[in-house]
Amino acid sequence: MPGGTVVVRTGAAVPPRRPSELLADDAKGATTFLRVRPPPPIESSDPEVDPYRPLPADDYGGHVDARPRWKAWLRRAAWTCVIAALLCLAALTGGYFYLAREIPTFDTVKDYRPLASTKVVAQDGTVIGQFYRERRTVVAMDKIPRILVQAVISAEDKDFYKHPGFNPFSLARAAIVDAVSGEKRLGASTITQQVVKNFFLGTEKRWRRKLKEILLSLRLEKNLSKDDILFLYLNQINFGRAHYGVEEASLYYFGKHVWDVNLGEAAILAGLPQNPARINPRRHPDRAKRRQIYVLDRMLANRYISRADHDAEVERPIVLPPIPPDPPGRWYLDETYRQLVAQFGETAVETTGMTVDVAMDPRLQAAAEQAVREGLRAVDKRQGWRGASLKLDPARLDDFRAALARRYAQLGSSADRAEVFDLEGIQQKDATLPDSLARAARTRPLEQNEIYSGVVVAVGTRETRVELAPGAQGTVPFSTMIWAREFRPEHATPAPRTALDILSVGDVVPVRVLRMSTTRVAADRLRVTRLELALEQTPLVQGAFVAMDLRTRTVLALVGGYDAALSSFNRATQAKRQPGSAFKPFLYAAALESGKYTPQTKVDDSPEVIVDPWSGKPWKPQNFEKDEFAGPLTLRKALAESKNTVAVKLLLSVGLDKVRAEALAAGLSSEIPQSYTAALGTGEAYVIELINAYATIASQGRKADPILIRRIVSRTGATLQAPQADLQQSMRPDVAYLTADLMRSVIDDPEGTAHSLSALGRPIAGKTGTANEHRDGWFIGFTPSLIAGAWVGFDDHRMMGSYETGGHCAGPIWLSWMRAAMAGTEVEEWPPPPPGVNCMQVNRTSGALAGENDPFAVRECFLSGTEPTQQHVDAPQTTPEDLLQEQR
Known about the structure:
With 888 residues, this protein is an alpha+beta fold.
C-alpha cells in the first residue's frame, strides 16, 4: 500500500507502530509485508498534542495495544512515594526547627537547677525546718544504691539502657489506644521522657507537647549519659507529701538515708511515682504492698534479684517507723518565714535554696513550748470543763473500735515500743463513719506523762475506762477529774460529784499517762499491761512567750500559742494586748528622771477622784484589793505591790508626754492613749515589743531590735545578710539602772506581786501585769544575762477569772522556762551601777542615811544629787508614861 509498510507476523497480534519504528522480522516465521497508507496526522491547534500518538484500536482495524499496564502503575507509585517522602522529610525538618525554638537546651548536668528549699539552722547546727515548694535534697548518683536503680528501671522503663530516648513501639501502641478510645492519654513515656516532661514541658496531653517531648528526649540522650539522666530523674521525681527525690522520700518513709535502703524499701520507692497519693504506704499500706509486689515481679523477670529474695520480700509486711515528732520551733519558723518573705519575696524563699542561721536554741525553745503548754493547761483547768470536743455514736461504738483495730493492724507495730492512737484534732465530720475515723487516726509511741486522745468505753461513778489502742485500755480515776466543773471563767461553778457528771461512753477525750508498763508477747510486739490515766483538756485560753539574750538581743525562744497545729496565729509577734501594770516601769523611769522622786520618796496610796482632762469624765483609780489602801508608800514599795493609785499620781505629777517619751526611748512604739488611764497600761502593745522594751531597761538603756536571723547564705555560699545588734543608748543609763533596781523588789519583797518567783534562787528583776477585768496576764523578768516574758489571755478578750493575775497565770510559765535555762549554769550577779548612780545604806523607815549599827539599814540607790544627806536619828525609847501621855 502506498505510504508505508506494515509487518504482520502470522498468528500474532502486533501492536501498530509508527512507520519509522517498523522493523523487518527475520525469515524464521511467516512474515508478510504489507504496504498501507498511514492514518492522517491529527489536526489540532494544541502544540502539545502529538500528531503521531497511538490511535484507538478501531483506527487500526481492530488491533489493541497489549503492553503490561502494571509497569506503568508501578513507576507512577514509586514516583509518588518518593515525592511524599520528600514532602514528609521537609515537613519534619521544618517542624523540628519550628519546635526547636521552644525547646530549652540541656547540655550537661551542671545545667540542673532544681527548685531547692531554704533550710533553717539553729544555734547548735541542727536543721529545724525548711521553706519549700518542693522538698528536695539532691544526692550524687554514686550514693544511690544499685538495687534502687534496678527497681526503678524495672518499674518504669525496662529498656532504658537500650532505647534512644523514646520507645517507638510503646508510642505507637499508645497512639492506637488513643484513637480507639477517643481520649488523649498519650502514655508510654520512658524515663528520659519523664525527665523532659518534669523539667520542661509539664503534663498537658497534646500531640504538640508530645513531639517536643520526643525531640528533647533525643537531644537529652545525645548530650547526657544514661546515668546522668537517671541522676536527674531520681532527684526530681515526686514521691508524695511534697517530698521530691529519693533522699527526701527515704527519710520520710523509712527514717534513713537513701544509700541505706534494702530491697523491699527500694521496691516501695520505685513504685511510688506512678501515683504517690494513692500508693502512699503510710496511708494505704495495702495498695503500697500490691505495687511493691509488682515491682519485685518485674525485677525477678529482669533477673535483677533471685527467686528466694523475691519471695522473702513478698511475704514480709510493710513496717514503717513512726514519723518523728516535729522539732521545736514552729512559731519561730513562722516568724522567720515572714521576715524572709518581706525581704526577698515568697518565690526566692521557697525555691532558691538559701541557708538561714537563726538564733533559736532548740533546748530552750523546747523548754518554752513545754512551759507554755503546761501553764495554759493549769489556767484552763481553773476555768472548768467544756466537754468532749468529739463524740462517737455509742450505738456504733463497736464498729468504730473494730475499724480502728483494722487500721492498727495495717500500720504494724514497733518492736521496741508500744504504739497507741491519738485522735486529737479529728473533726466531727470525719467521725460519722468508722472507716473515715480510722483513716484520720494517727499513732504515736506510748510514753509516760504524754497526752493522748482516746475513746471512753465505760463510765462509772468513781472511774472511767479510756481505750487508746486495741488491747490498751486505761483507768481514769474520778480524783483526776475534780477540776472538771462547768466551764465559766468569770466565776466558780459547783464541782462535779461523780464521773457520770463529766463523761459519757463514746466521748473522745485527752488523757495524760500517769503510769504505764508493757510486756513483750512476741519478738516484734509489746502489750500494754498497766495504764493509769488522768483527764486533760485542750486549753481554749492562749499564751505567748519570748526569751532573748540581753547582750546580743538575739531571740533564743519564741512561742505564739498553745499549739501551732491548732492555730497558726502568732500571738508573740502578731497580737496587740493591754500591758496593764506591766507598763508601770516606764512611768517610774519618767518619775525618777524628773528629779522629783527617788526610790525612797513616799507617795500616798489613797483613793482620789480624778477628772480626765481629755474625756472630762471623773475617774477613781482602784487597786487590785479594791477598797484597800496602804497610805504613804515609798516608790520601791509601791512598784513591788503594783499600787494603781500611786501610778496615777505619778502620771499626774510628771505628765503624760514625759511618760510617752520614756516609753518610746525604751522601744515601745505602739500608741499610748491620751488618758490618765495610760498609767495603768490601757494601751496595747505587741508581746515581743513590750519584752524588748524591758530589755532596754535591763541593759542600762541600750536599745536594739530583736534578732531572729543571724545570717543568710545563698545556694552558692555567698553571705546575703549577717545582722548584728545595733545597740544604741536611748535611755539615760543611770535612770535605766535605777528602774531595773526597783524592779528587783517585785520578786524580793515578801509582799511583791511576783515574790513566788524567788524560788528560782537567782538574782531576778521584773514586773507583773494584769489588764482591766483580768483579760490579760503578764510577767516579764530578767537576770543579768537573759530576759523573758510570758502573756496569757483569750483571743476574744474575755475575762480569764477574778484571780488570774499576771503573777498567777504568767509567772509560772516564766519560772518553768527560767529553771530550764539556768540549769547547770553559775549564779550571775548584777553588774555594778553606772556613773551617776550612788548606792548606800539607808534606814528603811525614814529613808535617811543609816547609822553604823542600824538594824533597819537597807541598800538603796539614788541618782547623783538626789541621795539623802542627813543621818537617821533614832527616836528616844518609848516608856509606858509616854504611851499614856499620847493616849490622853
